[in-house]
């Protein structure tokens, strides 16, 4: 399978899983609701975020964050395509990582275009400390970044020094 097909498959899987789970949350969970799944560790919640990771810029008093994040996402998707063109066909870790990051970016982009904010619903916590709620797209972005780090580690001896 060529790198474009592999990346597209990972992007499609992550986007479909992300949007499917968000649709379920939107249909089944009232806003701000919470359901304990694993007591003391994991809840399903329904929150929205106009900002970026961990709620940065999640404010109602600024109107430019949604257009800015849409523009940044489109630029990032262009960069992902560029990186995919430059990636060796055999580097499955890099290709998978780029596909997952692309899929995660597309999943959150769909929310921003459709809703003006991102739906988050995964709430992990220990005691009273809650990690900020996130979604499948955020997970795909994180796993994709991890795959790219693995690729960089595995290919560290093949790197060309900067001029």
TrEMBL record:
Similarity comment text for this entry: Belongs to the peptidase A8 family.
Role played: This protein specifically catalyzes the removal of signal peptides from prolipoproteins.
Membrane association type: Multi-pass membrane protein
GN (gene name): lspA
Gene Ontology MF annotations: aspartic-type endopeptidase activity
Coiled coil: none
E.C. number(s) listed in UniProt: 3.4.23.36
UniProt-annotated catalytic positions: 120, 138
Spans through the membrane: 64-84, 93-110, 130-154
InterPro entries: Peptidase_A8
Reactions that this protein is recorded to catalyse: Release of signal peptides from bacterial membrane prolipoproteins. Hydrolyzes -Xaa-Yaa-Zaa-|-(S,diacylglyceryl)Cys-, in which Xaa is hydrophobic (preferably Leu), and Yaa (Ala or Ser) and Zaa (Gly or Ala) have small, neutral side chains
Domain of life, source organism: Bacteria
UniProt GO BP: proteolysis
EC class of the enzyme, as a word: hydrolase
UniProt protein name: Lipoprotein signal peptidase
Annotated compartments: Cell membrane
Pfam hit, one: Peptidase_A8
Pathway: Protein modification; lipoprotein biosynthesis (signal peptide cleavage)
Gene Ontology cellular component terms for the protein in this record: plasma membrane
Keywords: Aspartyl protease, Cell membrane, Hydrolase, Membrane, Protease, Transmembrane, Transmembrane helix
């Amino acid at each position: 399978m060529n790198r474009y097909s592999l990346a597209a498959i990972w992007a499609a899987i992550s986007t479909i899983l992300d949007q499917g789970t968000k649709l379920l949350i939107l249909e089944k969970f009232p806003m701000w609701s919470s359901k304990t799944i694993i007591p003391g560790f994991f809840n399903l919640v329904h929150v929205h975020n106009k900002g970026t990771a961990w709620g940065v810029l999640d404010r109602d008093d600024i109107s430019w964050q949604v257009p800015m994040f849409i523009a940044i996402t489109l630029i990032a998707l262009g960069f992902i395509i560029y990186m995919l063109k430059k990636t060796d066909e055999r580097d499955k870790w890099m290709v998978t990582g780029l596909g997952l990051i692309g899929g995660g970016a597309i999943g959150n982009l769909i929310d921003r275009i459709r809703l003006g904010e991102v739906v988050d619903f995964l709430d992990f916590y220990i005691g009273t400390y809650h990690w900020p709620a996130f979604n499948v797209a955020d997970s795909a972005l994180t796993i994709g970044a991890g795959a790219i780090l693995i690729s960089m580690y595995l290919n560290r001896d093949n790197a060309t020094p900067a001029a």
